[in-house]
Amino acid sequence: MGTAAVEVENVVKRYGRAPATAAVDGLSFRAAHGAVTALLGPNGAGKTTTVEMCEGFRCADNGRLRVLGLDPVADAGALKPRVGVMPQSQSAGVPTGARAGEWLRLMAAFHHDPIPPQLLLERLGLRSVATTAFRRLSGGQQQRLSLAAAVIGRPELVFLDEPTAGLDPQARRAAWDLVAELRDAGVGVVLTTHHMDEAERLADHVVIIDRGRVVAAGTIDELTAPHQELRFRATPGLDTAGLMATLPDGCGVEEAPSGTYTVTAPAPATLVSTVSDWCADNGILPAELGVRRRTLEEVFLEMTGRELRDG
Ligand SMILES: Nc1ncnc2c1ncn2[C@@H]1O[C@H](COP(=O)(O)OP(=O)(O)OP(=O)(O)O)[C@@H](O)[C@H]1O
User: What region holds the ABC transporter domain (predicted)?
Assistant: First the structure.
């Protein structure tokens, strides 16, 4: 990767006085220009804190942050016209009495070549509420207005913190189309999301964060491809230990429910031929035999654990 739009190196952020754990704890990742980078992580993983440091809203305690090659705090003035920000709280900064269209026109006035407000209102399904006060918009409409405000200045880079949280399926798709268009136009997009389908749909690069650290990163393919899973149906009660013995180290075989067998491999393996040969040698006719990759959600749960966190 050449110069990245965002470079985060060994960044640490603690809240309060020397707490036992840091909210961001030696985090490193890069986000490219003209690409969508999705930050995923359980609640409290440190995603918003990271994004807010990149936006210059918070100072890091340690480490190095560069946004478009600049320091997000020291160079905040130079970055402001070049970077779009959609904060997690959609009401952040919008006066409750401001009308949707009025607010966008005001935001547009701060930029020399803005996207026409009317176009964004149209694209994000806000035309009919253009004259409605912000406080009277639904949560999803406020969210869409916040997205529109983040991109109206044609930024080179945009940070979107949970951009589609609470949006209905139609509005999510409109938001996705907008993000994809920005990326295609060369804009760097860094977004946080809890929606795995959103990351699968949009992200060129995924960074999974847990407890303030990166636990996995790569393209969707890189993250999901190594985890193969083969399934077939056969008579219940096969000798799964015998099958295991023919498979590479680290593979697993499970019968659940009865008569359905799942073979997992932690790394690319020739599962189909090995399992087919074993079945043929044992006079078994496997039905519905097929290989599938794990989903991003499965990889995410594997990396970050399945238990619900307290805090
Ligand atoms: N202003 C603050 N003061 C003290 N602690 C905070 C503050 N903001 C966040 N934290 C703590 O820092 C940790 C990381 O929070 P952060 O909001 O960055 O996580 P997140 O990954 O964005 O979570 P979510 O997915 O729930 O939005 C959490 O333990 C949170 O309680």
Answer: 6-236
Rounded Cα distance between 150 and 76, Å, is: 16
In terms of domains, do 142 and 284 share one? Answer: no
49 ligand 1 Cβ < 6 A? yes
Number of domains in the chain: 2
pTM for this prediction = 0.87
Question: Quick count: other Cβ atoms within 10 Å of Cβ 139?
Answer: 12
Q: Which of 251, 216, 230, 214 is nearest to 294 (CA)?
A: 230
Residue nearest to atom 2 of ligand 1 (CA): 15
Please report whether residue 303 resides in a domain.
no
Lowest mean pLDDT among 29-43, 143-157, 286-300: 286-300
Is any atom of ligand 1 closer than 6 Å to the C-beta of 110?
no
Question: Residue 70 and residue 184: Cα distance in Å, rounded?
Answer: 23
Mean pLDDT of 262-280: 87
CA of 43 to the centre of ligand 1 (A): 8
Quick one: pLDDT band at residue 228, thresholds 50, 70, 90?
A: confident
- pLDDT category, 20, cuts 50, 70, 90? low
> In terms of residue numbers, what domain contains 258?
228-293
Interface pTM (ipTM) of the complex?
0.97
Question: In terms of domains, do 202 and 246 share one?
Answer: no
**DSSP structural state of residue 167:** -
CATH number of residue 286's parent domain: 3.30.70
Residue 299 belongs to some domain of the structure? no
Are residues 193 and 268 both part of a single domain?
Answer: no
Coil, strand or helix: which one is 291? Answer: strand
Which single residue is written with the structure tokens 């253009």?
130
> Among residues of the chain, what percentage have pLDDT more than 90?
83
pLDDT at residue 18, rounded to an integer: 62
What is the Å distance from ligand 1's center to 22 Cα?
10
